[in-house]
Amino acid sequence: MAINKRQIIGSAILLGSFAILGTGIVAYVHENTRMRIIANQEEALLRSLHEIIPDDAYDNDILQDSIQFDSTLLNGNLPVTVYRARHKEAPIAAVLTVTAPDGYNGPIRLLVGIHYDATLAGVRVVSHRETPGLGDPIESRRSDWILGFAGRSLENPVLERWSVKRDGGEFDQFTGATISPRAVVRAVRNSLVYFSDHKDELFDMASPPTESSTKNEK
């Protein structure tokens, strides 16, 4: 019996050691995988930001120089993140994460870059579920439609013309698909209105004003 007890104890210790080692390996792999995923996501985000604002246009860490706030108008139930580009501490541009909630097949996530002078630096689609061949020309890899926002402002065109041509506005829609471009145009317009009202606060404050203090948002 003594021998059996020693064998049982030895086996238990061995199994316990394997369990501890296995748990440690799993935790190590999980942590390293998580860090790689985070790094890959940051690299992808930075590439998208650089499509809108060239990396030689600013000298700060644009990923770290960011703020978040809530705005159902700009981003539904998700917080709006603003990435701020500066050169020698002077504000250059901001990129807002916004959502067009009224796409044909659901929300369209966007990055909207706006120069400090309130002209658009560019717009890119982050994710969407629009119908292939109809609504997906909102992607820059599908067409150059979304590139046409660069240089636009609330004066080019005037606010009343910030809609697709079918609605009496300035912007083209797609053949057989109006809902997707209409949603994007509306979201970009709202971003410009918010930025125009709050650009100094967005750059100067640790956190921007609450949505209740905004004005002229439509």
Can you describe this structure in just a few lines?
This protein has two domains: 1-52; 58-213, no CATH class. The protein is built from three helices and five strands, in the order H-E-H-E-E-E-E-H. It has helices at residues 2-52, 72-75, 179-204, and strands at 66-70, 79-87, 90-103, 106-115, 120-127.
Gross morphology: elongated
* Gyration radius from CA atoms, angstroms: 24 Å
Tell me the domain tally. Answer: 2
Biggest sheet descriptor: 5 strands, antiparallel
> What proportion of the residues form beta strands (DSSP E)?
15-25%
Query: Order of helices and strands, N to C?
Result: HEHEEEEH
Count every beta strand, where a strand is a DSSP E run of 2 or more residues: 5
- The helix/strand class is alpha+beta
The chain-level mean pLDDT equals 86
* Helical residues, percent: 25-40%
Low-confidence stretches: 212-218
With helices defined by DSSP (H or I, 4 residues minimum), what is the helix count?
3
Q: Enumerate the strands of the largest sheet in spatial order, edge to edge or round the barrel.
A: 1-2-3-4-5
Q: CA-to-CA gap between the ends?
A: 83 Å
Structure description:
This protein is an alpha+beta fold and 218 residues long. It has two domains: 1-52; 58-213, no CATH class. The chain has three helices and five strands, in the order αβαββββα. The protein has helices at 2-52, 72-75, 179-204, and strands spanning 66-70, 79-87, 90-103, 106-115, 120-127. It has a five-stranded antiparallel beta sheet with strand order 1-2-3-4-5. A hairpin with a 2-residue loop joins strand 2 (79-87) and strand 3. The chain is elongated and about 90 Å long. Mean pLDDT is 86; it is low at 212-218.
